[in-house]
Amino acid sequence: MKLEEVKNQVRPADRAVMERSEKHWMSVGKPLFSLGKLETEITRIAGMKRSSRYELRKKALIVMCADNGIVDEGVTQTGKEVTAIVADNFTKHMTSTCHMADVAGVDIFPVDIGMERDVPSVTKPEKKVVYGTRNFAIEPAMTVGEVWRAIEIGIDLVRQKKEEGYDIILTGEMGIGNTTTSSAVASVLLNEQPEVMTGRGAGLNQKGLEKKIRVIEDAIRKYDLGAYVDSDADTGNDRVIDVLSKVGGLDIAGLCGVFLGGALCEIPIVIDGFISSVAALCAAKLVPVSKEYMVASHASGEPAAGKVLDALGLSPMITAGMSLGEGSGAVALMPLLEMGLRVYLDMSNFEEINVEQYEVFDKEK
Questions:
Q1: Helix, strand, coil abundance in the chain, percent, nearest 5
Q2: Cα–Cα distance between 18 and 116 in angstroms, integer?
Q3: Which of 27, 144, 263, 290 is the most buried (most CB within 10 A)?
Q4: What are the residues whose beta carbons fall under 8 Å from the beta carbon of 162, sequence distance 6 or more?
């Protein structure tokens, strides 16, 4: 699917439905606005779904699994073999997110979009773009064609899950080295210095962090990515794809497609942490309206995470110091959303509970 086709088919969230949702919240028999962001997100999701009454019964977590050639530069604490091990463990119910998903009622779908080796329990040839990206310290991570293929796979996965009856889709990733790729992409797209946008990932010491920053800085110079100036999202399409191809990862590109697919299929997509928020930023740069179908789950521990969400105009629902990735933050949000939805759908109104309707007053009066 060509980008122009996506742009032409995507519609903004339904403002009229959101107004009806806000009006309904005003009638619910509780202090006005007392559920804070829960009320806001329940209303936003109503606009995405174009219905002021909806359910979130079926929840899917798509975990994009991919390896990154930049790991060869020693920017991580562990080796690339861990990606395949953890991807396989998703199918064996042996990851932290699996246990969290049990509580939240979330179905997990790991996708081998670019691991260095096949994992029989996960790998499907039609979903695999290439066997890991190249080392961007030496050569571009991907071709433009590989980036687009990953995006298309993400879009197709959302279509499939929508057809299977899923009401909401969560994003996750597994790929050693992907905080390096994400920091590089975010640095360029937000015109920030890598030292500001780069964190320790899964536990680098100070020396390792300094090397990681240096590797990103060198790549930005090598590919002249610093020559980009902040541009309007509508005219930055080539820029996004070029940045992804030079210093990005297949998991980021695939998740970018998931966010675009959410806008196309009018289904909410939940951002997990830093890596998926960078994918969301890429999607928003390509198709600005796609932001209206994104829900931010939590404030990641990576230093650039807040800057990326600010650029998207989104506010995280949870602040818990989480940095696990793998979709864990997105999964953690689900019980909260469902609790808010139950109040929204099932609670009596003021008349039914014999309480006088609250009024909205100007705080200065």
A1: 55, 10, 40
A2: 45
A3: 263
A4: 265, 267
pTM of the model: 0.94
| CA distance to 210, 216, 288, per residue, from 225 (Å) | 20, 11, 22
In degrees and rounded to multiples of 5, residue 104 shows phi and psi of -85, -5
Specify whether the backbone of 61 is left (phi greater than 0), alpha (psi in -120 to 50) or beta.
beta
Amino acid at 4: E
pLDDT by residue (tens digit) across 289-348?
Answer: 999 999 999 988 888 899 999 999 999 999 998 988 999 999 999 999 999 999 999 998
pLDDT interval class at 1 (50, 70, 90): low
Inform me whether the pLDDT recorded for 365 exceeds 90. no
Say which residues have a Cβ less than 8 Å from residue 235's Cβ, sequence separation at least 6.
Answer: none
Residue 352 has pLDDT above 70, yes or no: yes
Highest mean pLDDT among 53-67, 293-307, 342-356: 53-67
Is 152 tagged catalytic?
no
Spacing of C-alpha 160 from chain mean position = 18
Which is the catalytic residue, given 217, 326, 352, 356? 326
Residue with tokens 């606005």: 33
Token pair listed for 259: 């966010």
